């Protein structure tokens, strides 16, 4: 029976969960086409043909064994649906007609009561005829039905108004609350739609809070490829997908999911839902397919559990149904059939086990007696040693002093050693002409792999200039073998290597013969004499001194002349012996 939604204009309306096959009229059962509502020519059949068609499902669910335990006496199942015909002979005397939540929409017209009557017969049908052997028998044949009309169906004269009316939006929620307030032990909701309704969710929470078991169908869109998502899931249907609801899928005789049954993670358990005989208003019977029928069967088994354990909480009834399933997936659960197909005697046995497991012996006992019969003894007080408190205080004090001392040291260190700026972020201070630590007008260190703008065209760390005729011995510098710096025109700048006879080149190894400046030193600004970074030239005593850069001597030889080498320490290496005496 179709569980889903239909669209009218801009709103969705709940419709009965019905995939029904019209099977017979005038109390006779015959074959029918799936989904058709066309009356067929009845074939000769006895009234107990209906029961014969039920036999396979009754056997699968183990009803003969379950009925030896209970048949659902003193349990009320609310059928919140399209309404029930209380005169149908298979349920006559077992139905209390509740309020019609669509009375304003019906406007005095008589509803068809097709869907609701069929669900009531699967739950609480007692049959008719001698010994009740004819017609439909429900799974809880001694249970009572509370019929509440909350949805319309297409056979109703008021169906068009129902689909276009907003007054029907909260009808299901009102029906659930009415059932919870009027003695329902189980509520069957063989209906659904794709949209959540806050009032309906609240009503279900209200019913479960009052101890009512709520069962609902998961929907019949499982074979509609347009609605299946990338995970193979059909749309979630409500109220089946609300928390606390026992959501039921439909199975085939092979115990596999029926193709039309919704596949998604709301499914808790499953039950037969294909080709079930159901009673209709008057003397009509139908063959029915759908998750609505499966939901009604599970509601019947829940009624049996409630008959055996009237005060069992809804969550435990759910657990008993799950523990009693058969033909479940190997993994324990899947979105096709949930935990498996329900079975009445196994569910009753599971409920018995759950009831025995409850700590009933502690009920009514005072708090001091719930963990044993003996009176509780005195509480043992463990004295704290005298050294604990001062030790803890000392540890805390040491920690505080350490933190404060660390902060003071960090501040002092920061003041003595201020943060140094990165090299090149400020210009180097200018030195005297021809000396200092860097030539004026150029950075201290040229960048790797490039030449600053405006600088002469020469490598920063290139090899020394090759010696011409009559020059130095031509020892290799620090560049690759065979390489030579580019030539420079006359009047070269301070960044240009010296030419032969003008002193050693920049960054070349020191001249062993005393003919030029040391390696790694930039040339002096005038092109004469040693550079700023050159080690001192050997003095007469054979040891280097810190002479001033090459250039004109100051007047009088005073002021900038270095002191006598014999009177000051020397930091240069002694000159290699020349072999002369």
From TrEMBL:
It comes from the Bacteria. The keyword Ligase does not apply. Residues 432-451, 456-581 are annotated as: Disordered. It holds the Pfam family Peptidase_S8. The chain crosses the membrane at residues 392-413. Residues 72-340 form the Peptidase S8/S53 domain. PROSITE patterns: SUBTILASE. Residues 468-477 have a biased composition (Gly residues). Residues 478-488 have a biased composition (Pro residues). The active site is at residues 81, 115, 292. Residues 531-550 have a biased composition (Low complexity). Keywords: Hydrolase, Membrane, Protease, Serine protease, Transmembrane, Transmembrane helix. InterPro entries: Peptidase_S8/S53_dom, Peptidase_S8/S53_dom_sf, Peptidase_S8_subtilisin-like, Peptidase_S8_subtilisin-rel. Belongs to the peptidase S8 family. This is Peptidase S8/S53 domain-containing protein. It comes from Actinomadura napierensis.
């Amino acid at each position: 029976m179709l569980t889903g939604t239909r669209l009218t204009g801009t709103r969705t309306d709940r419709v009965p969960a019905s995939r029904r096959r019209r099977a017979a009229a005038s109390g006779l059962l015959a074959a029918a086409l799936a989904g058709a509502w066309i009356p067929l020519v009845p074939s000769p059949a006895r009234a107990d043909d209906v029961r014969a068609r039920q036999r396979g499902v009754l056997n699968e669910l183990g009803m003969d064994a379950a009925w030896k335990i209970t048949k659902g006496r003193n349990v009320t199942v609310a059928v919140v649906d399209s309404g029930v015909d209380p005169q149908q002979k298979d349920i006559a005397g077992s139905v209390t007609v509740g309020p019609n939540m669509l009375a304003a929409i019906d406007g005095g017209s008589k509803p068809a009561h097709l869907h609701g009557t069929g669900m009531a017969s699967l739950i609480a049908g007692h049959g008719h005829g001698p010994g009740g052997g004819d017609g439909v028998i429900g799974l809880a044949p001694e249970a009572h039905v509370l019929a509440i009309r909350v949805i319309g169906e297409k056979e109703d004269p008021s169906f068009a108004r129902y689909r276009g009316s907003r007054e029907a939006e909260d009808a299901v929620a009102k029906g659930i609350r009415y059932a919870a307030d009027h003695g329902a032990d189980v509520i069957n909701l063989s209906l659904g739609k794709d949209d959540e309704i806050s009032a309906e969710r609240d009503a279900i929470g209200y019913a479960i809070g009052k101890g009512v078991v709520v069962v609902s169908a998961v929907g019949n869109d499982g074979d509609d490829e347009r609605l299946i998502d990338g995970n193979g899931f059909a749309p979630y249907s409500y109220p089946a997908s609300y928390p606390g609801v026992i959501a039921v899928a439909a199975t085939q005789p092979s115990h596999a999911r029926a193709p039309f049954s919704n596949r998604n993670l709301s499914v808790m358990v499953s039950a037969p839902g294909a080709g079930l005989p159901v009673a209709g208003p008057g003397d009509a019977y139908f063959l029915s397919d759908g998750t609505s029928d499966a939901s009604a069967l599970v509601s019947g088994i829940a009624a049996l559990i409630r008959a055996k354990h009237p005060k069992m909480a809804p969550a435990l009834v759910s657990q008993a149904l799950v523990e009693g399933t058969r033909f479940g997936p190997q993994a324990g659960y899947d979105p096709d059939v949930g935990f498996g197909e329900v079975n009445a005697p196994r569910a009753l046995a599971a409920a018995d086990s759950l009831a025995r497991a409850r700590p009933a012996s502690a009920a009514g006992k005072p708090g001091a007696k719930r963990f044993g019969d003996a009176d509780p003894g005195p509480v043992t007080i463990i004295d704290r040693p005298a050294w604990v408190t001062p030790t803890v205080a000392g540890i805390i004090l040491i920690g505080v002093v350490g933190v404060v001392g660390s902060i003071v040291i960090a501040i002092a260190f920061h003041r003595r050693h201020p943060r140094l700026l990165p090299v090149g972020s400020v210009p180097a201070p200018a030195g005297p002409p021809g000396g200092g630590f860097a030539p004026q007008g150029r950075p201290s260190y040229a960048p790797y792999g490039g030449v600053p703008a405006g600088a002469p065209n020469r490598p920063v760390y290139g090899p020394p200039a090759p010696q011409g005729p009559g020059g130095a011995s031509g020892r290799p510098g620090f560049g690759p073998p065979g390489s030579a710096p580019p030539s420079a025109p006359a009047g070269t700048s301070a960044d240009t290597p010296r030419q032969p006879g003008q002193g050693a080149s920049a960054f070349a190894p020191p001249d062993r013969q005393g003919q030029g400046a040391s390696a790694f030193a930039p040339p002096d600004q005038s092109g004469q004499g040693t550079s700023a970074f050159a080690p001192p030239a050997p003095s007469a005593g054979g040891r280097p001194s810190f002479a001033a850069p090459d250039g004109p001597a100051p007047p009088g030889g005073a002021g900038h002349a270095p002191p006598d080498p014999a009177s000051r320490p020397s930091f240069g290496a002694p000159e290699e012996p020349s072999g002369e005496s």
